[in-house]
Specification:
heterotrimer, A mainly alpha, B mainly alpha, C alpha/beta, A: mainly alpha, MetI-like fold, about 0% strand, C: alpha/beta, D-Maltodextrin-Binding Protein, domain 2, five-stranded antiparallel sheet, 9 strands, globular
Chain lengths: ~270, ~280, ~350
């Protein structure tokens, strides 16, 4: 009798601690995002929560924010180009090392994933020095190259994970039935790892669009990207238009995520 | 048969694009960084260790490096404390709830870091929500200084990087055979004991992976550190940026960047060692 | 089967959207002009008054990059060939550095019709002075009932934890330190009294802003109640509904001149001159000399009025009598003082 009660206390205390900590964590995970959304609808020029009144004036003000729009356009262009390049490089790289268990494959895997571990700020500065040394002027193109370095690990990771789940027997069957290597790749391998590539591409796109440390060094006023522009405004002004822009970004991210979930099963690819 | 031999032709051809890109646009810049840190500028004359000596002999600079690593450690600890329960709940939840919870976990990574940090400015201020709530609940008499304090920076960093901790935790937890926990409890061990003796050792690779990712991200989190930290809390990213962009002191900034990279890699290496410790392999 | 079709459709739509995004939008009248501006009142005034006037006159848009003068000089020095912006805005101190570094063009007076209408004290071969900035004490009138009169009020123990300061990389910070030294027996050649006073003040300090714009945020979020501040910025914040007011110092009003310049190797030098000329035109200066900007005009045709007359000077001749600083002396020690300040304030 006493033993059962002790076990109950043990189970309840465990569940309570885990539940309470998790609840606090989930609350703080979404709370700031909600605050931004709510504050963006304020009717005053000052950032207060709760807002004294509600209005859409700051979203309307975004229509006139030409510079912000230009920055957003630059970010979009760079992210699309960086993602496309990451897909090409990442998929070919994953195919090369993902199916091998040799030692060199594991070493290469660590090397190609290292951009995620090294301080991106240091790499951004290194890229600036590099381009200055070889005499290449900064432009959106050099920015894309800088972004690809820190985005390709995402595609690599998810594609390798996908390949690991690929049954090699399928490839053997195709080859033994007379199909060529490229045909096998196109019709068998690619569709099966397609979702992995898509998930990686999605992450790479967001990583490029939101990137700050590399963009900090590789952009200037003529090639401004959105995160830098927003940061500059926040750091100098605390303008409420930042809240509206943030609100839009949040809504766009949610929409993109829902699409990625629907078409690429994003959450399943990430764990 | 199945796995292609290491020196197979097509494999090397597939490797070429990514490999070439890495050499040209990742390795080469880092080498240039190292070279500039050892010389006097882009002209690359006069090789010496002066910049490193200058940094390492200056207590102000050293304190900034130490503060940055300490900041990373504290934020990682907070992430770990809250990340473990979150991952646990995600894995043990019903499938429908799980999709929603995963969505909540992933959404922050995908929202711009500037946007997320900006939200915290509104929350942490003297007139912010947190202080207003605490005051009305009577928990404090005067508003706390959360903004521009290290506590504030740790809090915001932990929240911003939490998904990086949770995702590897979820991946590893899912791979642990649930029968093991059941068997342990059937044999009479309580929940806490099972967790400590059975789950945790098996979970260790996930913990290490999460800690590594979060630590690396926190030490280089420029935007969060500067927006929440202000002018009086200086960490390595701001210091490097001030020297590189503000003072045009490229060699010194390069030396600092190299030192930061080495420090972070050292910690990552140590964390990896923890993951492969005897304790883990004995119980894993 | 249907699942795969769905994914392919999505990919195709994505590629199409991407291609559309890469197409140029309807061509504007001319390439935008990239200019540097200061945070706070300045970037707002330039965005809301100067840029529309400029666009009407030339059809070109303006892209602003918000940067302190010292950072502008650093960026211009680092850029080999193509400068990151065509128009620089400088305070007196950094202007001397910029001229020495050779990053500015001499101002083509013949291309600027409004130049001759400037008060002679504000004409300069490197670029016209577009305004004066004066500093004093910004304070929250709801929390601080007694109007501050001098820097000594910052040291009042009643304001402990509510005092704000700003970093020395901005002219506000530097001018404050120099003036603080002057009120305590020192000056440009002897800054020790200021640093000694700083050590005294630090325990009372609530927050230190890394730059001017962040200083506004401190007041807006009520992190501080009293701080050295620019006259213009206080007015702009007041109009936004922030509880703040400006107090002039009875020890004399410190002031400095701000000017616009064409950068060397500018991508669009002619547009740059037109932009600067627009800023010194009577229309723009009159439009900026009102709420919420209160930018002090330098064109003879624009009389002083409103808040400026109430708090700063009654006429343009009086402007010459304000307290100016010796920037040549200050520049010799600038980096040393900035470094020392940063070390002293670090927590």
């Amino acid at each position: 009798m006493a033993r059962t009660r002790l076990l109950d206390l043990d189970r309840m205390s465990f569940r309570f601690v885990v539940g309470a900590l998790a609840a606090i964590a989930f609350f703080f995970l979404i709370f700031p995002t909600l605050i931004v959304l709510l504050t963006s609808f304020t009717s005053t020029a000052s950032l207060r929560f709760p807002p004294p009144g509600y209005s859409l004036r700051w979203y309307a003000a975004l229509l006139d924010a030409r510079q912000m729009q230009q920055a957003a356009l630059n970010s979009l262009k760079v992210a699309i180009a960086a993602t496309a390049l990451s897909i090409l490089l990442g998929t070919s790289g994953a195919l090369a090392i993902g199916r091998s268990t040799a030692r060199w494959a594991k070493i290469l895997d660590s090397i190609f994933m290292s951009p995620l571990l090294l301080p991106a700020l240091a790499f951004g500065f290194a890229a600036l020095l590099y381009f200055s040394l070889i005499g290449v002027p900064l432009s959106l193109a050099t920015l894309v190259l800088g972004h690809v370095a820190v985005c390709v690990p995402f595609v690599l990771r998810t594609t390798i994970a996908s390949l690991a789940q690929l049954d090699p027997a399928l490839l053997d069957a195709s080859l033994s039935l007379g199909a060529g290597r490229f045909f096998t790749f196109r019709r068998i391998t690619l569709p099966l790892i397609g979702r992995g590539i898509a998930a990686g591409a999605f992450l790479a796109f967001m990583a490029s669009f939101d990137n700050v440390p590399v963009s900090l060094f590789l952009t200037d006023a003529r090639t401004e990207v959105l995160p830098i522009h927003l940061w500059q405004i926040i750091d100098t002004d605390l303008d409420v238009r930042t809240a509206a822009a943030s609100g839009l970004l949040i809504l766009a991210t949610i929409a993109l995520m829902a699409a990625a979930e629907r078409f690429a099963g994003l959450s399943k690819q990430l764990h | 048969m199945t796995a292609a031999p290491a020196a197979d032709g097509p494999e090397w051809r597939l490797l070429l694009p990514l490999g070439a890109f890495f050499v040209l646009f990742f390795a080469a810049p880092l080498i240039v960084l190292l070279l500039v840190s050892l010389s006097d500028g882009l002209a690359l004359n006069a090789f010496s260790l002066t910049h490193y000596a200058r940094f390492l002999s200056d207590s102000f600079s050293l304190s900034i490096l130490v503060d940055t690593l300490a900041l990373g450690a504290k934020a990682t600890a907070v992430c770990l404390l809250f990340g473990l329960p979150v991952a646990w709940v995600c894995v043990h939840a019903s499938p429908r709830l799980r999709s929603l919870l995963l969505f909540l976990v992933i959404l922050p990574i995908l929202t711009s870091v500037v946007v997320r940090t900006f939200a915290w400015i509104v929350i942490l201020g003297q007139q912010g929500i947190l202080n207003k709530t605490f005051l009305s609940l009577g928990l404090i008499d005067a508003p706390l200084r959360l903004l521009f304090s290290e506590v504030g920076v740790v809090m915001v960093l932990a929240q911003v990087q939490m998904p990086l901790m949770v995702l590897p935790l979820i991946t590893t937890l899912q791979r642990i055979d649930p029968n093991l926990a059941d068997a342990s409890r059937a044999l009479g061990a309580g929940h806490w004991r099972t967790f400590r003796r059975v789950i945790l050792p098996l979970w260790l690779p996930g913990l290490v992976a999460g800690c590594i990712l979060v630590f690396a991200a926190c030490t280089t989190a420029f935007v969060t550190q500067t927006l929440i930290g202000g002018a009086r809390l200086v960490y390595m990213p701001l210091y490097i940026y001030q020297q590189a962009a503000g003072a045009n002191n490229w060699p010194f900034a390069a030396a600092m960047s190299v030192l930061l990279m080495i420090s972070v890699l050292l910690v990552v290496y140590l964390l990896n060692l923890c993951g492969r410790s005897r304790w883990a392999t004995r119980h894993g | 089967m249907s699942r795969r079709v769905g994914r392919r459709d999505f990919l195709r739509a994505g590629v199409a959207a991407g291609a559309l995004a890469l197409l140029p939008r309807g061509a504007p009248a001319a390439e935008p002009l990239v200019v540097a501006t200061f945070p706070g009142t300045w970037n707002e005034a330039h965005r809301d008054v100067l840029a529309p006037y400029f666009r009407k006159k030339t059809g070109a848009d303006v892209i602003q990059t918000i940067m302190l003068a010292t950072d502008q000089v650093a960026k211009l020095e680092a850029a080999h060939g193509k400068p990151p912006f065509d128009v620089a805005i400088m305070d007196e101190g950094p202007l001397l550095d910029a001229v020495k570094a050779g990053v500015l063009e001499k101002y083509p007076v013949e291309k600027s019709p409004n130049y001759k209408d400037l008060v002679p004290a504000f004409q300069d071969p490197w670029g016209p002075k577009i305004s004066l900035q004066v500093i004093g004490i910004g304070f929250n009138p709801k929390k601080i009932k007694e109007r501050p009169k001098s820097w000594n009020d910052l040291f009042n123990p009643a304001y402990k934890g509510r005092v704000g300061l700003t970093a020395l990389n901005s002219t506000l910070g530097m001018a404050f330190m120099v003036d603080l030294a002057k009120t305590r027996g020192g000056g440009e050649s002897d800054i020790e009294p200021a640093f000694k006073a700083l050590k005294e003040l630090l325990p009372s300090v609530g927050a230190i802003s890394a730059n001017l714009g962040a200083h506004a945020a401190l007041f807006q979020q009520e992190q501080i109640d009293i701080a050295p501040y620019n006259f213009n910025f206080v007015q702009t914040l007041k109009e936004k509904g922030v509880d703040i007011d400006f107090a002039t110092l009875d020890t004399g009003i410190p002031a400095w001149r701000t000017s616009l310049h064409v950068v060397k190797n500018a991508v669009q030098p002619d547009l740059a001159v037109q932009y600067i000329d627009a800023h010194i035109s009577p229309e723009v200066q009159e439009d900026m000399e009102r709420s919420p900007y209160w930018v002090i005009p330098t064109n003879r045709k624009v009389p002083l009025k409103g808040e400026i007359v109430k708090q700063v000077a009654k006429s343009q001749d009086d402007l010459a009598k304000l307290k100016y600083q010796d920037w040549v002396k200050i520049n010799q020690h600038r980096s040393e003082w900035i470094e020392r300040f940063n070390r002293d304030i670090k927590l």
